Each structure stands twice: as C-alpha cells, then as structure tokens.
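Changelog note: in this version the structure field was regenerated for every chain. One regenerated record is shown below for reference.
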Amino acid sequence: MQNKLQELTDRLYNEGLSKGKQEGEELLAKAKVQADEMIAKAQAEAAQIIAAAQKQADEIRTKTASDIKMASSQSLAATKKDIETLVVGKMTDEAVKKALSSADFVKEIIKTVAEKFTTEGPVDLALVLPESLRKELEPFAAKELSKILSSGVEASFSKKVSGGFKIGPKDGGWFVSFTEETFNQLISEYLRPATKKLLFG
C-alpha cells in the first residue's frame, strides 16, 4: 500500500513536473517570439526615424545650397551693377556737368528744342533754368530767344536745376526735362550695355 502510494505520488510529481516544464518551455518560447517581434518593431521604427531624419537633413542641405547659390548670384549681380554704375557715372557725370554748365551750350540746346515747339505756329514757352547761369541766360531768354521764336518766353531760375533746363508751353501744365540728371540717365542707359560687355564679357 505504501509502495502504491509512493508510486502514485511519484507519478503525480513526475507528471506535474513534466507538465510544468512543458508549460514553462511554451511560455519561454512565446516570450522569445514576443521579444523578437518587439525588437523587430523597434528596429523598424528606428529605421523609419533614421530615414525621416536623413530625408530632412537632405532637404535642409539642398535648400541651404540653393539659398547660398541664389544669395551668391544676387550678390554678384548687385556688385556688377554697382561697378557698372560707378564706371558709367565717372564717364558721364563730369562731361555732362561741364557741358550743361556752359551757357553757350545750353543756349544752343534751348534754341533747337524751342524751335520744335513752334513748328505749328508761335507758342508762349516757359523755361526753368539753373540759378547758377542766371547772369548769362536771363538776357538771352528775355530778348534773344523771344526774337528768334516770335513768341513770348517766361524764364524762371531754380537752385533745384543744377545744369540744363526744363521747357514747356506756358499754359500747358507740363515740361520736358533736359537737366543734368535726365541727361545722365539717358546717356548711362546707352553706355551701360557696352560698359557691361567691356567689364564682364
């Protein structure tokens, strides 16, 4: 009886041990599968994060390179324009200033322009002349020009006109500008392309 009880106890023990061992192995296998899945998922997520960071870094690098290239191009263009302006300005400013501060030269231009206004008949003209040439041009405008054009000429003098003149019909409300500034702009427009080609090819 005691042997049978021992046998039964041993059998129950062995079966329980065997079953516990099997369940333990199953739990261990299941835990390993879950751990492998978690590792794979973590690796996939890490790969996605790295790929996204790499893509963002590439985009930033591309944008930065593009911005640097654009800024460099704009800076170069601005520098070229400044050089052009400087060279053209040096070429024209002094020559224009000298010519338009000569009373004889200004008289000749005024005559030529004024005659174009009177091709359809006498027109009373208004002139704005540089204050610096008042002494030389006031008698010319008051007497000589009126006689040449057979019409009235009203001359005023302004410190705002440094050289050259403005002319227009007395009652027309508009003027054509032949001042130092407008001559410089006109001449520099024609000189700029040639200067650009000479300087930069």
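Spot check on this record: The beta strands are 125-130, 153-158, 164-169, 176-179. Residues 96-200 form a domain with the hypothetical protein PF0899 fold fold (CATH 3.30.2320.30).
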